[in-house]
Amino acid sequence: MSHHDESTAERGPQEIADLPKEKVARFDAALPEILKRYPTDHKEAAMLAALRRAQEIFDWLSPAAQKLVANRLGAAVTRAEEVATFYVMYHTRPVGRHVVEVCTNVSCSLAGGYDLFDHLRKSLDVDNGGTTKDGRITLRQVECLGSCGTAPAMLVDEEMHESLTPQSVERILGGLK
Amino acid sequence: MSETLILTRRWPKNDPSIDGYRADGGYRGLEKAIGMAPAAIVDEVKASNLRGRGGAGFPTGLKWTFLPKDVRPRYLCINADESEPGTFKDRYICEYDPHLLLEGISIACFALDIHLAYIYIRGEFAKQARSLEKAIEEARAAGIFGGPKLLGKADFDLQIHVVRGAGAYICGEESALMESVEGKKGYPRFKPPFPAIVGLWGKPTIINNVETLANVPWIVEHGAKAFADLGAGKTGGTRLFGVSGNVKRPGVYEKPAGYNLKKLIMEDCGGTASGRPVKAVIPGGSSSPVLRGDEIDVSLEPDAIKAAGTMSGSGGVIVMDDSVCMVRALARIAMFYAEESCGQFTPCRQGTPWMWKILEKIERGEGTLKDLALIEQLPGNIMGQTICALGDAAAMPVQSFVKKFRNEFVEHIEGKGCKHGETGWGVSRGSREALVGGNRHAVR
User: Fold this and answer.
1) Alpha-carbon separation of residue B78 from B40, B104, B146, B206, B404 (angstroms)
2) How many domains does chain A have?
3) Could you report the predicted ipTM of this complex, rounded to two decimals?
4) For chain A, which has fewer Cβ within 10 Å, the N-terminal or C-terminal residue?
5) pTM for this structure?
6) A26, A61, A86: which is the final residue of a domain?
7) With pLDDT > 90 as the criterion, what percentage of chain B qualifies?
8) Using a CB-CB distance cutoff of 8 angstroms, which residues of chain A are in contact with residue B123?
C-alpha cells in the first residue's frame, strides 16, 4: 500500500459488510465451481481464480473484496493481499470502465507498439496506469503478450487484439462505452 | 523430401473439436499407449530424444524417470505460461489443436501413474484457456478421460484442469508455477529438492511445456526412432520457431530441430521487411545472448547453437535490421526483467532495475564511460547469485549486447544521444501491415 493520501473513493470499501449484498451473493454462488478443481484439503489453491472472479464482480479488488475472498477460502487476509498485489492483472485500485493494455516489448515496438502506446497516452491525456477523466478507459503499458508474430498487440478488458494499425485501434477504442 | 509436420499439420483452419481431431486420426497414440506397459512408454520417450521445449531443453524421458517409485499421489503440471518475450508458439497449440495437447497429457499421465494434471496458462491467454476448457469438456463427454476409464477401456481415472495465471512472467519458472497453482504469489523455491521429488503440495510433480507434451502422441504412434531421426544430435523431432521483428513473413514455423537460423530468417521469412541488412538476432527468447547479423549461419539445435555462444531456448527468434538502436532494444529488455523480478533475492531485485536505469541514461545521451564500465560489470554480479534463472536471464542479454555492439554504446555516450531516430525502434514500425499484407494468423 502506498503512503500518499488517498481519497475515500480510491481506498474503497474496507469491510465485507460494506460490499453490495447482491454482488457478494453472486461471488458465493460462483465459488463451488472454482473449488471443484482442487483437492478438498487445498482450498487456498483457489486464491487466484477466486480473486479473478471477485474482480469481475466488484470491478476491482478493494480491501473488502480481498477480505471476502480470504474469508471464503479460510485463508489469512494477508494471503489474499499478497496475491492481489503480486500479479499485474489484479487491480487493487479503481479502474476505468475499460482497461486497455498495450504491449511495448521488443517485438511489438519493432512493429510500432511503443508508438501506439505513446499516441494513446497523448490522445487520451493519461499517464501510464491512469484513467481518463470520464472514467471510460484505464491505459497501461504491459509486458510481452505472446503475440509477437502478430505485433503490435493489446488487451482490451483482457481480450487480445492483434496486428494493430492506427485505424483498427481507433475502431476498437471507439466501440468502448 | 516432404517435410514432416507433427505439431502444426492441423493449423490453423482445421476443426479443433474432438470430432475434427478424431477424423484426422487423433487419440490413436493414446489408444496404442493404453495397450503398452507404462514403463515401455517412458522408455520410448527417452529413446526419442525429446527435449523440453520451454527453454531449458532438458531430456523429457529422463525427467520422467526422476519420480520416486512409491510416493503417491503424483501430479503433472503443464507449463502454458508462455511469457518469454519473442515466444508465441504454445498459444497456437492451445488454440488450434487443444486435443493434441490433451492426448499428450493423457499418455504422460498413464505412463507415470498420475491422476491429476493442471494446465497452468498465463492469464492473458483468455481465448486459449477457453479453447482448452471446451476441449476438456468434449473429451470428458466422449469418455476419453475424466471417468473411471481411459478411452472407455483402461481402468484409469484422470482429471485435467485449466488453471489461469494472473500476469507474472516468473510463474513460467517451474517452482514458481507450482506456488501459483497452490494459490500463492510466484516466488521460486530453492532447488534441490527438485519438483520430481518434492513438488506440488509437497508431492512428486512433473512439469512439462505444452509443445513438449504435444509431441508425445506422435512418438508413441510412430516410434522413438522416427522422431529422433527428424532431429539432429541429441535433440529429436521438429521444433516450433516463432519469428518476429523485422521480417517479411513473421509467424510460427515448424522445422527440424537442427534447422539453420539464417535459412529460417532469409528464406522462410523472406529476410527483413525493410530490405535492409540484418543487424541483430535474438535467437531463443529475450534472455538468449544476441547474435550479430554475420553470426546467424548456425544450427538451432540446442547443443550446436550453444557452441556459438547462445541458445535456441524457447524458439522465439527476434530479428532487427540496421535501423534499430541496440541501446534502445536492450534497455527495453532490461526493463522487462526489472518489472518481472519477483523481488525475493537482492542481486536480482536491485540489480535488474539498476541495469535498466543505466541503459536508459545512456540511450538519452546522459551516460558516461563510467556507466558503460558499470553496465559491463553488473551482469556478472547477478549471474548465479539468485534463487532462479531470472537473474541469469536478465544478465545474458546485457552482457551480449554490450559486448557485440559496444561501439554503439560508446557513440551514445560520446555523441550525447541516439542517432536512430526519435524512438530508436527503426523503420519497420507502423508499416508492418503494408509490408506483410496483414498477417492475421502468424502461422506458416
Assistant:
1) 22, 10, 17, 8, 36
2) 2
3) 0.95
4) C
5) 0.96
6) A86
7) 92
8) 52, 87, 89, 158
